[in-house]
Amino acid sequence: MGRRKKIVQECEELMDQPEQIRNIAIAAHVDHGKTTLTDNLLAGAGMIADADEATQLVMDTEEDEQERGITIDAANVSMTHEYEEENHLINLIDTPGHVDFGGDVTRAMRAVDGALVVVDAVEGAMPQTETVVRQALREGVKPALFINKVDRLISELQEGPEEMQQRLQAVISDVNELIRGMTEEMDDIEEDWTVSVEEGTVGFGSALYKWGVSLPSMQRTGMSFGDIIELEQNHERQELHERTPLSDVVLDMVAEHFPNPLKAQPFRVPRIWRGDDESDVAESMRTVDRDGDIVFMATDIGMDPHAGEIVTGRVFSGTLEKGQELYVSGTAGKNRVQSVGIYMGGEREELDRGVPAGNVAAVTGLKDAIAGSTVSDKEMTPFESIEHISEPVITKSVEAKSMDDLPKLIKTLQQVAKEDPTIRVEINEDTGEHLISGQGELHLEVITQRIQKNQGIPVQTGEPIVVYREQPQEGSREVEGVSPNRHNKFYITVEPMADDVVETIQRGEASMDMPELERREALQEAGMDKDTSQNVEHIHGTNVLIDDTKGIQHLNETMELVVEGLEDALDDGPLAAEPVQGALLRLHDARLHEDTIHRGPAQVIPAVRDAVHRALIDGEIRLLEPIQDVRIDVPSEHMGNASGEIQGRRGRVDDMYQEGDLMVIEGIAPVEEMIGFSSDIRSATEGRASWNTENAGFRVLVDNLQREKIMEIRERKGMKLELPQSIDYI
Description:
- This protein is of the alpha+beta class.
- The chain has 24 helices and 32 strands.
- The strands form 6 sheets. Strands 12-11-17-8-9-16-13-14 form an 8-stranded antiparallel β-sheet. Strands 2-3-1-4-5-6-7 form a 7-stranded mixed β-sheet, with helices on both faces.
- A hairpin with a 4-residue loop joins strand 6 (202-206) and strand 7.
- The protein is globular, with a radius of gyration of 27 Å.
- The model is unreliable at 49-74 and 97-102 (pLDDT under 50).
């Protein structure tokens, strides 16, 4: 029997023993060594030949991932590991580190119970490290830490045992500060989730040279830091690897410290599901009941040229089997499961048996599922939607070079939006362009490249366009909106909403899907006053409609149209038809016609739209531009040129400090000005700078650029170039 077949067989046997299962993700900042570490673990589990250096990037299965040397898609693998004479099934997801693909990290966290956070020993905790820790903790996923590239401290920085331990201790305390800051607000975490060397939740090593240590492994093998430094300095890395193999250290840590589904699900289910906790389905998810109702959460969608669409996700209850007819949340009818299987790196192994609760499964046949769908055999309350921390900030137009390819392009773009919910696809009906919006330049570049390569559709792409927002800056007067037939009137005011309330809505902690009492409490906690929170009628994006009316006849049956008019007005703000954010709108009064026929959509929607736009203008609505946090690491002789690159882009430098032999420059800059930054910073620093950016929300565009930018956007969208007269403050 081949080694691979034997592993598949072992995985199948262990699937039925939830106490032996560990579902984990590996997450880190870009280039901190996640994929090389994963290759090590695969080699340790006997799934790939143990080459001299584990740099095969087995989990980067796409051609463009291999070329760019970064992970773009989260990749799944199941493996087995023996710990304390018991075999364990480890379902692992290798996630991307680049900020543009952060959506994959968020989705992976829904499927797992533990996150191994990887940090570079030289660079320390970086902005994206903070983001992945936050994503893990928000999903109720327990962290552990692996500090990678320790060999660089010895060979490059020539550090002795004491200096090394101080540096490693600093990394651990940075990560613990992040964990503490997040877990303080989480009442349901009873145990201490901070990581510590003594408890064995921190490992150190070099994924490149395949050695690793933790306190338990040092006690077991008798290795000390002094031994490691000596072997590393003498380049006896093979002996280091043989005496203390990285895969054993990490997989032991996973088996020992990460919770199994029986321990994790009772704690995680209430965090991610708001259904009736007294129901049978709640009980079978808590107890990981393989004979209970089927509940499967889709976290990733991929395409297989032979099998079609593959949905990967976590089985929370029941057993998924071929031939089952299942509901997909938010869609009508049922989907029939064609096959179930598990992932072995880049390849999927179909199984002849079902996949029981507590496992990660790969399923075909769920054609209606998107990343984030709840799949079940009975209709049920779906899981909470997966909240992506950052929003799309950059847009490109995509057109097929040949008209014959147009239907294929539309189909491909629909598929792209299904696979990656952080991509937004829209068709501009006025210009016939297809617009795709994503997290950054690289994100869109990868998507368009894949459309051309994988689907064979030659496309033309436009210049990147930055996504703006509009927001009122002060409270407005009460504004009247009148319907075209003059029989219906609406009285509305608008005011800017507090940042804390906006953030609560953005994070999904207050939404219309929640029970009213819970939503009210969340909004009050964020600072909204009690009376306002009790009258929330609708939330659209980060805007809230408050119904302050008293006993108006026919308003109940007209409210749906009021909401439609409101959404219409907020999607296309009055300045440049960009989305409005952070507006609190109050409906104070309404006069409605007695006859339904005279207060239909053609009357109510324009009246509300007009009132909202006029109230926003009275509230001095301004254009907001997306900004990014920028960090540049550069040798000190190039520091001036590097900081000049930020300042020359309407950015500002907030901090400069020395770290090792490099200077670190931190600042912020507008996304629009950062287009083309990579080639400019390279030439300014002779290619010696490394940098990263992270989306940091939106800020008001400076006054002297407001009119110019608004006109530029209006012209691009084919709108009238005259602004309404009432916008006299811009």
